[in-house]
Amino acid sequence: MPRFAANLSMMYTEVPFLDRFAAAAQDGFEAVEYLFPYEHTPAEIAQRLQAHGLTQALFNLPPGDWAAGERGMACLPGREAEFAASVDTAIAYAQATGCKKLHAMAGLMPAGADTQAMRATYVANLRWAAAKLAPLGITLLIEPINSRDMPGYFLNWQQQAHDVLAEVGAPNLKVQMDFYHCQIMEGDLTRRLEKHWAGVGHIQIAGVPERHEPDSGEVNFPHLFDHLDQLGYGGFIGCEYRPKAGTSAGLGWLRAYLASKKTSQKDRT
């Protein structure tokens, strides 16, 4: 049965960040993810996870100056030392929290950028980071992000990401497949998932097109959840959406799906 992780950067924003761990656990989540933990110490994060019996599913490397609009630096020539330092920073948090998946944001393409140089920098940085993370048992992730929400982002397409995986050649480099971004850019989610299955390392969801709960809009999420189950997906599904109103009040979709799975399991026994 699929397992779900609450994204604490988007969910439970009714309370301060460190209080969101308790709120997620109270609603039955087994795991959490978020964009960045760096405003708090590794020990503070680890304490919340342990206190509430939660698994840390994922978080991002430091992205550069987020407030100024930066969205990662992995593909940016001249930022290699800063990228390397971001990996070291993330490792400290990963080791404290037991997190085994880290997402490296690619970055935005400056106007008139040399895309070949950016691609070479991206591949070299990812190869270096994957090699550093491998002895720690950590998987490095890259994520295609839609060009509507994040114009100018270096990585937009599933095939583009899997081509990078092939070029890097590191077994612990995988693609973070967010069905929200993929639907906006490409659609055909079931077949695209099947095509790239071997390289998928993490799944995220949100309703399309508004990025609210996955219970309305143009995507049949129960079908995708069942298909992930059939494919043998063992990771968490990250709920990276913005609740329409209260987070807990909007979890009817999750309760209904889990109840339907329990009912079908009873029917088979």
Walk me through what this model shows.
Pfam families: AP_endonuc_2. Keywords: Isomerase. Its EC number is 5.3.1.35. The mean pLDDT is 96. The protein is an alpha/beta fold and 269 residues long. An eight-stranded parallel barrel has the order 1-2-3-4-5-6-7-8, surrounded by five helices. Helix content is 40%, strand content 14%. The longest helix is centred in the middle third of the chain and has 19 residues, at 115-133. The radius of gyration is 18 Å and the shape is globular. It has helices at 20-26, 42-51, 80-97, 115-133, 158-168, 179-185, 189-195, 221-231, 252-268, and strands spanning 3-7, 31-33, 55-60, 101-103, 139-142, 173-178, 200-205, 236-239. The protein has a single domain (3-268), classed as Divalent-metal-dependent TIM barrel enzymes (TIM Barrel), CATH 3.20.20.150. Helix 3 (80-97) links the parallel strand 3 (55-60) and strand 4 (101-103). 41% of the residues are buried. The chain is built from nine helices and eight strands.
